Structure formats: C-alpha cells, structure tokens
Amino acid sequence: MAERSTAAVDVADNSGxxxxxxxxxxxxxxxxxxxxxxxxxxxxxxxxGDRRNPAPAAAPELxxxxxxxxxxxxxxxxxxxxxxxxxxxMDEKLRRAVGVHLLPADHARARAVLAAARSSALLGDPRxxxxxxxxxxxxxxxxxxxxxxxxxxxxxxxxxxxxxxxxAYQLVSQISQAMAAAHREGxxxxxxxxxxxxxxxxxxxxxxxxxxxxxxxxxxSETPQRADTEAIGALLYASLTQRWPYENDAYGLTGLPKxxxxxxxxxVRAGVHRGLGELAMRALANDGATASRQEPACTTPEELSKAxxxxxxxxxxxxxxxxPPEYQHTTYQQGSYGRPQGPGLPSAQVLSIAPxxxxxxxxxxxxxxxxxxxxxxxxxxxxxxQLADALLDHSTQGSSGSNQNSSPKADEAPDKKEPxxxxxxxxxxxxxxxxxxxxxxxxxxFDEDTSTYWRTRYYLDGPDMTPGxxxxxxxxxxxxxxxxxxxxxxxxxxAGDHTTVSLYKASSxxxxxxxxxxxxxxxxxxxxxxxxxxxxNLKARYVLVWITxxxxxxxxxxxxxxxxxxxxxxxxxxxx
Length: 576
What we know:
Phosphorylase Kinase, domain 1, 22 strands, about 25% helix, seven-stranded antiparallel β-sheet, Transferase(Phosphotransferase), domain 1, alpha+beta, disordered N terminus, globular, 11 helices, eight-stranded antiparallel β-sheet, Jelly Rolls
C-alpha cells in the first residue's frame, strides 16, 4: 500500500511558491571549490561536518501534463538537479498552484526527504512556506508545497541594489526569529541562500525549503544552529552591501576581493548602518571574523534574534508627499455656502451671518397692527410724524412680544451634539475556528492609511460564507473605555456583489470568544468599497466587525492573492 502523509491546510489558502529558477543556474554550485575549500554558496562542508551521499539515481522522465495522485498536474519544470526535479503544478482539487519536488522511490535520499517534509509540515509556522503533502506511490516520492506567485525572491531584490536600513532590519529580525522557532522544534534549514527567502507584497519574509532543500541535496551538519546563523549573517551582509561575503561570486552577487578575507560592511560600501554592520559581523564571526566592538559572536539563531531585539529601533524612511497642483483652502462658512458672491469680492469677505427670519405674526398682532395704522393716519392728518414713528415702533415690539408667547424663537432650539471620532486603542483578528487570515494586518485598519489593510484569503465559493466553510471573518476593536457608538465607517478594498458586514458588542479582544456570547447590533450589505453602519443606544468598549459575505475579485498582486471571493479592510472609524 502506498505510504501517504498529508499536512492539514486551509482549503482557501492562497499561497504558493516562487520558481526555483535561481537554483537551476546553481546546478553546479553544490560542489566544493578546490582552490579555497568553500562551496559557491559560502558553506564550508569539511569544517561543519557536511556529508553528501553517493551519486543518486537518475530522475524519472516526467513531462508537463503528467498527473500525480489524480490531483496534481505538472505544468513546468523549474529545476532538474542531482537526481530530482522541481515543478510548478496545479492542484486540480483545490484549483490553485503548488510546487512539487519529485525523485525516484529508490533514490538514496528518498527516505530523508520524506522525513524532512513531514517534520516541516508538523511545524505549521506561517513564516515558512508550508509543506502540503508528502507521498510515496508508484515508485515515486514527491513533496507538495505552497506556491507564492506574487512574492519576490531575495535574489531579485538584491539585484536591484542594497537595502535601506529599516528593510535590512526587518529581514534579519524576521528570519532570525523564524529560524529560532524552527530550531526549538529540532528543525534546521542548512541552505539559507537568497533564493530560499521570499518577500510578500505585505513586506513579510517567508522561508522556503525548511529541512527539505538540504535533504534533497544530501546536506547535513554536526553544528546546524551555527550553520544557519552564519547563513543569516551572510544574507544580512549581502542586503547591506550588495556583495556576497565570500570570495566566490554567487546568486548574482559579486564576491569579496580575493586574499583580503572578511571585511566589515562599512569598508565595502559607504553609509552602511553601523549597528546592522556589526550584527552581520557577529553572525559571521564563526568563520574567524571579529566584530568591530569586540562583542561576542552569535552562534545560534536565538542569540542572533536577541541581539537584533536589543538594537535601538530603526525607523522606516519618512514618506514623501506631493501636494495637489491647485490646492486651496475651503472658505465656506455657516450662512455663505451656496450663496452667490459679487464680482471681485474675495471669498473671505462673504458675510457668514444669515439675516434673521421675519417675526412670526399672530392674530392678535395683526389686529393691533391695523389699529396702530389707523392712528398713524390720524397722526398724519395732525402732522405728528414723530408720534407716528413712536407708535409704529411700539406696535412692532408688541407684535413680536405676542409672537414670542405663541411660539419659541428659532435660536432657542436645543443644540445637537456633533458626532466625534472615537480613538481606537487596539485591534485583533477574530478567528474562533482557529484559522487566522492576517494576524499582523489588524493594526493596519485604524492607522489612517488606506494603502495598508487587513485581508482575508481567497475562497472558491461565495459570496455568502454561511452556511458552508466558515461562519465569518473579522476584526475586534478596543475603544479604550465604554463609549456611545453611533456609527462605524468601513473602507473596503474590493467592490462587487456583495459584502455583508455586522457589528457585534464584544466583551474583550479575545480572538476565540464564542460569537453567540456577543450581542449583534446591526447588519448591512453593500456592493461598493465603502460601508456605513448606524447604531442606536450602543454603549461598548469592544466592537467586532464581522464579515459574512465577500465579492468575487480577480487576482491581486498587491495582496498576494489569487482570483476568488475575498475582501480587505483598509480603514475603520467609529463615531459617537
């Protein structure tokens, strides 16, 4: 019976993997350079006890269109090396792209590859490209993994130039933390090259080939933590200098001058961030280099991760804003909006006080006015103009007085309280089913920047998610204290038929509290990219924005997702 092990995955996961084209170009770089004893990728096989198996069996002859397990259709071979091949394939069951590593079942490394793939799948860390299937059947062993079509390989990023300090900081921070977590579970990579690092459209770094890439090539090490730490140091060095920190050229990067050894990054390129340069040297100190400040070398990813965390924070570069070409301040004031202005009269001189309305006239006032008019006629006959003016003035005041008794003045109307923006103190993704969508994205929904967002994965069924595969997707917000909430304004990324959103009153920022324990406040449906939900008498500190239907949208490189039913929240504002 065929042996089969499948890693659990979300049916609607939108991830894939970048082609391994860079590894095709490096097909001959796994050998050792006889001149300096170093492999072209910078590793030292003899020093770290690396052992390689004897010549492998020939790779099976497969072609595009071949189907594995009546499910995975091979489409393009991206690597053929050392007795195995790597392909871009289509998972016809879930209708998404995947990557596949293939080798004969009698290959000398087949057992090691299966074991490495299953161990990597059990880790389940989203910072790594996930193994989806590990199978032995029909004299073949194959490993199926995610395919990230919209991610960018670090090789391509470095080809464009050195990274600015904040981006290099993010690289070493994320990679060292991820590898520290892997080593705590007993997993090593042993082939952390630029082609193994992918940057997603959201700026997150993901590592592919954990344990599997080394098993495919028969690479082992007696000091795996030290090997991976030095590899991270090499990645940081390359990101700061655009040079590979060894004498040989590799991964499209020029190596260091021969005979000078490992020199500090700021000696290679001017303007290198001092703290990051010293950190790279500490990680590479395993090869005999010395950090400029005599700080201890980092020999494990955990030590390197702590050293990164201890550094002063490196802020991102200030964004540059360009003002519109004909920007002018709005000068509309109460009472002047929509009123015509005289020629040549500046808008700032428009009177902002509207004329008071004429006094309301009661029946008593009219009678009194006609009586006074008769007296005026008599006064005119007598020539008492001053008396007539006085009486007319008195009659007007009397009419106004009687009018005041019959109805209130307009300016005595009760003042309406202007709605105020409620500050959001925090947010967290709400996923009671235990399958988060975008944990780091929740904070992007109240940062006053609509170019950042929290996104869902894409799904093949919709637009309504219930009843079916999910109860919903959403984010819960903390307003700091109990507030009177009158409205929630939501900016969405995708328009179309249709998005349904509900507001719930929650009791905390918990991501797993039962939805049934919350009070539903209001539900609304829209086909546009904006939505306003109005509430009445809602007093709450925690408010859940819960999506139960999403429009169908095309593939979007900006979010790294394929075509399907999906949504993203760019900004949420509460008023009360």
